[in-house]
Write a structure and sequence with these properties.
Blueprint: E1 6-10, H1 18-30, E2 34-38, H2 42-48, E3 51-56, E4 59-64, H3 67-102, H4 108-120, E5 147-158, E6 161-172, E7 176-180, H5 187-194, E8 202-207, E9 213-216, H6 229-236, H7 242-250, H8 268-282, E10 286-290, H9 298-310, E11 314-318, H10 322-328, E12 331-336, E13 339-343, H11 347-385, H12 392-423, H13 433-464
Parallel strand pairs: 1-2, 7-11, 7-12, 9-10, 10-11
Antiparallel strand pairs: 3-4, 5-6, 5-8, 12-13
Helix pairs in contact: 3-4, 6-7, 6-8, 11-12, 11-13, 12-13
Length: 465
């Protein structure tokens, strides 16, 4: 509303749901303002940015293009940097060897000259490594049963507000469920009910036999604020020695005196790494991850993604990070208007069929606008024809108008039917749901074209009356 010339956005998607993130994405793509954006959301960066400034090893490097182009250019730059470093190292070693062998001999003058030149040579550095990356590994202590969780007639509410009702589901071992929906809809509430942190208002949701959960909470309250990092890990592994505890914290970027820091003094990203360090020790066979990427940098998100991909247990992933969901989710729960649609497919597949539903909705809106225009013209025509003499040409004109209106009504009915079919969540839960949705979407486009032609014919008949 301020009408700025430049927008400075620091992690703007951190607590946004998918719908709002997409809205912001489209807004920024269409704005005329200059945008400087700090983000760890890889899909958002790819879709919005046309330049990347990457800060690494105390320096910044500019890249042209989106996030994918940045990754390719950076990899090429690192390769060239590594080659130049290796080549210079070979040259230096060769010259130093010559200096050592000839410094006290008859070629002493040449050796001293080379030593002087070598001392002035700017030294290249190797490309930054991954030393600061989080070393996360998620192991399973016990395999657990094949039936991990069951929901039957589940109903969750806060006061008079119903969040979820009449939900049935069975979660199988190995599922990675991407759980999406608007902020405040009840996703975190369902996870809390699953681990027994809150009661249900109807039905039940329960864990299967031999299932051990580990819960990454969005608010990070699982990290004790009044303890040092050392004591947090020591409480979980009392039999470990000091070296083992420090080594474990070192995997997550805490070394030296940092292990004695109070958790209350940590940044959001640091607390997130401590929470993951705690989960790593749980050896749980069920992970409940509630917005785990909110405070992590890109390198840590990629480490988490790799760890979950190798994980042999079951995962509930509440997230708005599309890149993470595309990489991991093999099943999607979509919470909307108190109901959960259980989509048996990847998040990428859900995005495809979701686009078909959104397209159907936009066609329905356009069709409604055209219908409203037709009704208004019909009213205007009905008032105007009063008092006009009924002649043979006017009767033929009315017949043409009636025929055109009949064609419009026919096309409208088919468009409405196709829109309803595409909007039905159950369509996408069938085995051939994706192909069927694509076929219906193509037919909808054809009917929309025919409807537009019918409207045009009707308008011509009206004008000729």
């Amino acid at each position: 509303m301020q009408g700025p010339d430049i927008l400075l956005l620091d992690e703007p998607t951190n607590h946004l749901d998918l719908e709002t993130t997409r809205w912001l994405e489209e807004y920024l793509k269409g704005t005329d303002e200059t945008v400087v954006l700090i983000s760890h959301d890889r899909a958002f960066l790819e879709n919005v940015c046309d330049h990347i400034l990457h800060v690494e090893a105390h320096s910044g490097t500019a890249y042209l293009g989106g996030y994918t182009a940045f990754l390719e250019q950076r990899a090429h730059r690192q390769l060239e940097q590594q080659r130049a470093f290796v080549q210079q190292r070979k040259t230096i070693d060769k010259q130093e060897d010559y200096i050592r062998r000839h410094l006290a001999g008859q070629n002493s003058k040449q050796a001293k000259g080379r030593r002087k030149i070598l001392s002035r040579l700017p030294r290249l550095t190797p490309p930054p490594g991954e030393e600061d990356s989080m070393a996360l590994r998620l192991d399973v202590g016990e395999r657990g049963g094949d039936q991990v969780a069951v929901a039957e007639k589940l109903r969750l509410a806060v006061g008079d507000r119903v969040l979820i009702e009449n939900f049935f589901a069975i979660v199988q071992r190995g599922d990675v469920i991407g759980f999406i929906g608007p902020n405040g809809a009840g996703k975190s509430t369902l996870l809390r009910a699953l681990v027994g942190d809150r009661a249900t208002e109807g039905g039940e949701i329960r864990l299967g036999g031999s299932i051990t959960p580990a819960y990454y909470r969005q608010d990070l309250t699982q990290v004790p604020a009044n303890q040092s990092l050392y004591d947090v890990i020591n409480d979980l592994r009392p039999m470990w020695g000091r070296g083992a505890i420090q080594g474990h914290l070192g995997r997550f970027g805490f070394s030296g005196d940092a292990v004695q820091r109070s958790a209350a003094t940590l940044s959001g990203g640091e607390r997130a790494r401590v929470a993951l360090a705690m989960i790593m020790l749980s050896r749980a066979n069920l992970l409940l991850l509630d917005e785990p990427t909110n405070h992590l940098d890109v390198e840590s998100i990629e480490a988490l993604e790799d760890a979950v991909e190798r994980y042999e247990g079951t995962v509930f992933l509440v997230s708005h990070d599309r890149a993470l969901l595309r990489a991991l989710a093999n099943r999607v729960w979509i919470l909307h208007d108190r109901h959960i649609t259980d989509f048996d497919g990847s998040f990428a597949e859900w995005e495809t069929v979701s686009a078909e539903r959104e397209h159907a909705a936009s066609v329905a809106a356009a069709e409604e606008q055209e219908s409203r225009r037709v009704r208004e013209k019909q009213k205007t025509r009905a008032g105007a024809k009063d008092g006009k003499k009924d002649t043979a040409p006017r009767r033929r004109s009315r017949e043409e108008i009636a025929t055109a209106e009949s064609e419009v009504a026919k096309r409208e009915a088919r468009v409405a039917e196709l829109t309803t079919m595409l909007a039905d969540p159950e369509l996408y839960n069938r085995g051939n749901g994706g192909k069927r949705a694509a076929s219906l979407g193509a037919e909808l486009e054809r009917e929309k074209t025919q409807l537009e032609r019918a409207f045009a014919a009707w308008e011509r008949a009206i004008a000729a009356e």
